[in-house]
Amino acid sequence: MKLFVQHGYGEGQKVQAGIDAGYIDGVIYSPKDIGLGRLQGSLDDLAKRKPAAERLFDPQYYATLVANAPNSRCGLLMSEYAEYFSARRRGQLEQEGRVRDDLRDTLRFTKKLNLSSVITPGIFVPRSLNSIEAVIAKNFIRFSKTTAKEVGESRPVLATLAISCEALRRHQELIEFLTDLTLLENPPDGFYLLVGTSGTDGRQEIYHADTIAGWLFLTHTLALNGLRAVNGYSDRLTPFLGACGAAAGASGWWSNLRNFGLGRFAPEASGGRLPTPRYLSCALLNRITFDELERLRGVVPDVLNGLPTDKLYPVEDGSEPERNQEVLQSWDAIRELNRRLVAEGDTEASLANCRKGIADAAGLYLEVQGALFSPLDSKSDDSHLAPLSDGLELFAELAELDSP
C-alpha cells in the first residue's frame, strides 16, 4: 500500500523532505499550483534522485466546468496549461466528439511530461450516478485507453473518477455504475478516485457510514477486477481503503489537500487564519491539537506513535511543531497505519485489523476523557469512530464478505 503526496499551494521543501525520509512513495502534482517549467524540473529531478518514486499529474480537468464562474481560482491552469485546459459547459461535453478531442489534447500534453503513469481527464459527478454528468464521466473513462493508444502513449493509464459523497451514498446506483465499468471492452489500467465534499472541511460528509461503505466498495470492486485504484485526498481513510484493495492513497499539508472538492477553485472567502498545528495519533485514528498532545503525553502516553517524527513535537516547546514539519509527522503516521492495518492481498485479515484498530481507539478515548478536565476539540474527539465502524460493516455486506 503506497502513500503519495497530494501536491498543492505552499510546497516549499515538504515534498523533497517527505520523499528523502521515505514517508511517501510518489507525488500527484497539481497544475493549478505549479508552473509548467517548475513542474518539468521537479519531475525530472524526482526521476533522477528517486527512480522508484511514482510521478503522477492530475490534469484537474474537472475544474473546466467552474472555470467561467466569476472570480474562480483556477490558478495557472488557464494560462500555462491552456494547451488542454479551457472553460467548458456541460452541454458541450454531452457530445462524444468533444470528449474525445479533450482526451486527445490532454494526453498529447502529458505525453511530454516525465511521468510514471498517466491520469486522464474526467468531470465531477455532483449528485447521482444516474445522471448526465455520470454519462459524461463514463465516456471519458470508456475512451481513455483507446485515445492513449492513438497518441502513442504506452505508460499505464489511470482514468479519473470523481464522485460526490452524496452520489457515493446511493449504493444501488453505485453497483449499477460499477457493473458498466467492469464490462468495458478496453478499460484503463486503473483509476484515480476522488470523493468530493461540498465544503473545505468535509469531515461530516466523509465520516458518514454510507460514504465510507461506498468508497470502500468502489475501491474493492475495481481492485477485484484487476484495476489499480489510486485514491486521491484519502488522508486518514488511506489504510481502510488499502484494506479493501487500494494500491495507493494520498494526503497533503492543508485541509483542501486532505479532502477533495471543487471549492478549491471557487472564489476565496475573506479573512481566515492559519489552522492550529495537529498531531496524527495512530492509536486514536485521528488528529489532536498540539496543546492537547502536550496535556496528554504524560498521562496517556499511548496517544504517541513511538515514531521518529514524535521528536518534531518537542516537550520543551509545549509540543508545538514547526509548521512546515507538521505534514511530515502526518505522512509518517499514515504510513505506520498502513503497516499496522493492511495485510496485503488478504481482505479478511485487513478488515479484522481495522475492526481491532477502531475498538482499541474507542478504549483509548475513554482513557483520554478520564484524564482531561475539559473536552477535546470537536475535530479531535471520537465522533469519527462510529461511522468508521458502521461503514466497515456496511461495506462487508455490499461486498458479500463474512462479518465476524
How is this structure best described in words?
- The mean pLDDT is 95.
- The protein is 41% helix and 12% strand.
- It has helices at 14-21, 36-49, 77-80, 90-93, 96-110, 132-142, 144-150, 165-168, 171-182, 203-206, 209-224, 238-243, 290-296, 326-341, 347-371, 385-398; strands at 2-6, 26-29, 54-57, 118-120, 124-125, 157-164, 190-196, 228-231, 248-251, 278-281, 286-289.
- Strands 4, 5, 6, 7 and 8 form a 5-stranded parallel β-sheet that branches.
- It has 404 residues and is of the alpha/beta class.
- α5 (96-110) crosses α7 (144-150), α11 (209-224) crosses α16 (385-398) and α15 (347-371) packs antiparallel against α16.
Q: Please state roughly what percent of the residues sit in beta strands, choosing from under 5%, 5-15%, 15-25%, 25-35%, 35-45% or over 45%.
A: 5-15%
Helix-strand pattern: EHEHEHHHEEHHEHHEHHEHEEEHHHH
What number is the mean pLDDT?
Answer: 95
Work out the helicity level.
40-55%
Give the biggest beta sheet. 5 strands, parallel
Radius of gyration: 21 Å
- The number of distinct helices, counting runs of at least 4 residues, comes to 16
What would you call the structural class? alpha/beta
Poorly predicted segments: none
Number of beta strands: 11
Task: Tell me the distance between the termini.
Answer: 24 Å
Inertia-based shape? globular
